[in-house]
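Re: your question from the hallway

Yes, I did run it. Sequences:
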Amino acid sequence: MSDRLARFIAAEGGFSAVSIANMHRMAGGASREIWALDATLEKDGIRETRALVLRRDPGQHKIDTSRRAEFMVLRAAHRERVPVPEVFWLSDNPEVLGAPFFLMERVDGETIARRLLRDPEYATARKEMPAQLATILAKIHRIDAAAHDLDFLPPPGENAALTEVRRYEESFRRLALEPHPAFELAFRWLLARVPRTPRKTLVHGDYRIGNVIFGPEGVRSILDWELAHLGDPMEDVGWMCVRAWRFGNDRMPVGGLGRREDFFAAYERASGVQVDPAAARFWEVFGNLRWGIITISQARTHLDGNVKSVELASIGRRTAETELELLNLIELP
Amino acid sequence: MQDRPTAIELLEAAADFVEREIVTATSGRVQFQSRVVANVMRIVAREVASEDSMVRAEVRALADLLGREHPHVHSLADVSKAATALNEELSKRIRAGDADSGSWRTDVLKVVRAAVEDKLRVANPRYLEADLAIRGG
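Structure:
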């Protein structure tokens, strides 16, 4: 694998010599392979070593995403000074490494959200991150998609909220192996409350503390842009509040770190746009439902034999967690 | 009739080994996956212990909710099939808007919540306990 990769990097980057060391698979990434490696690159007699990350599709997944789309969005975010790893080279050609992949800068830091929520060394990060995340999110929502050739991203349709609900309802009907009355109740609740969505922006699509590289001082980099699309920016705000990303710290709804009101206020300060609490709640319910459907999809990926994995299989039993949270949310006055 | 240890005891023994010996001797991805393996074994042990009574209770509650007679089925496989059929009927009624408001909605929410709580008693009892603690105040 490293030989083929070295040849690919040499050709893409115009290097006279490339050698790869310390290549190993990193933890995490239930739906994507992530490898760390150090590449020593030689050009015009100058030699430099870069710490890199390779992201590769492991096989056929139920929710299809594209490495090229993720690469392009990351590049746009980097140009607009959103803290993201710089992306270098992309391959759509399955002959190079068996599946599409790209290479990007490896940013030092921690990604394990449980450590952020519990370890003493991240006390400052815990305090700073809700406002940092709100400010960065406002910046993401200001990226001009057309100016960065991101027009190929999934469009929001007439009404972004309705489009997303219909899209996930279709996935649910196609993927679920058993009835889920709690999800049916959630779909009815959502369809009765679809917000009008006057703003249409770039939406990160998976904005949560598990997709952040952080240090003791706070946010260093925003990761996992593969679900980026065009839509209602409040979708990202609601997704930040989904219960699964609190890792048990349920008294702090925003990623286990902060209160909704404070997060909304910081977003409003950074974006100059008011957050409608009813719309944010719609997207929080939608987010929990969406995560529930993703758990079904991940279990299907295992059950259908595309990727055999005890981790994916076990996620199938997390569906009930989202069902309970949905019942809690739709029963609130 | 099988000899001791029971299925649950065998699973607990295997899960204990994974947690004490494999998780502590590994790191990174393998350590993480080993934790998942131990957790999956605990789920199966809890399911073996409680599945029968849980599915039977779910079928009774769903039949009452939908105004049907309690099905005359005996084997766990048949009870599970009845539960699926009744949940499908309930789902259809919810999609048709029958549970959008009114007193039947209250009944539906109660029955669905009880079934979801039973799933969590098997899959993640700590999640359910945390939820009850927060909602209890």
